[in-house]
Amino acid sequence: MLVFTDGAWENQAAGIGPVLIDTATNMRWVLAGEVPQQLLDKWQPLVRDQLICQVELYTLVVIRWMFKDFLKERRSLWWVDNDAARCAIIKGLSSSPTMRYLVREFYAFAVEAPSFWWVERIPSFSNIADGPSRRKPEEALNLLKVDRCLDFQHCPELVNRLLSDQLVTRKG
Known about the structure:
By secondary structure, the chain is α/β, with parallel strands linked by helices. It has a single domain (2-163), classed as 2-Layer Sandwich (Nucleotidyltransferase, domain 5). 43% of the residues lie in helices and 22% in strands. Strands 1, 2, 3, 4, 5, 6, 7 and 8 form an eight-stranded mixed beta sheet that branches. A hairpin with a 2-residue loop joins strand 2 and strand 3 (13-16). Helix 2 (52-66) crosses helix 4 and helix 2 (52-66) runs parallel beside helix 5. It is globular and about 40 Å long.
């Protein structure tokens, strides 16, 4: 599986838009959506207007949840254009409490649906997921010959866990 992820934080809107390619079956997905407002409301007082790292990392967490059955016991290569999100996933921790909590949720899926993954850096201008994260999926759809852009599924259980009081409420 090839997983291209991207998040966009523009005009107080948090767009997310991954692109997935299953090289074994040739299935392809282009998705677009936004981070739920209640998560942004929780994170913003903690990190001010610099939410892009949380937005980018949330994209990885949601993809891990949505595609856990496709990723289970398979190899995947994840392309991420935000270094803070990429490094947090690779290390399994972050100095930011909000990002550390997101990383913990990403790794929680390893118990239920273990997989073998590698995370690499991709520059934004080369990232096929950039357009979908800005609600402009046309280029990705055309390049991959995909008929339609899918909406994100936000698991209520996951969102509730991310909203829980377990998240440390100090700046970070």
